[in-house]
Amino acid sequence: METKYMSVESYGAYQVSFDLSDYVWNIVVLWNYFEKDTVGKQFARAIDSISANIAEGFGRFSKKDKIRFYYYSLGSVHECIDWNNKCYKRSIITHEEYIHIKSKLDKLPREINQLIKYTNQKLKY
Fold first, then answer.
1. Which domains does the chain have, with CATH numbers?
2. How many CB atoms within 10 Å of residue 81?
């Protein structure tokens, strides 16, 4: 009998945030130098940190450590909401790009909070 282990890729929050980070990356790399240097680098780092912190939390041993990284991820979601709004207001991204990014970012807090709740309930330590 084969034992099946959970992987970070099975988390909905991880999948959404990982795909979103590639989407934003592909937009930012096309910007001019000033836009990339001021807003783009920070937006790309913040969006990458969502899935990276979920992955790091998954790899931690204790419940407290795991949850701490999931909260970091949640903070990065809120930072990205701000960057997305700034990019749209400054006409750096199109309306369609803004809506796509916003729709994904709007889903993530709920998914990450479910991950935190699940971790709290299922892990003893």
1. 11-122 (1.20.1440.60)
2. 17
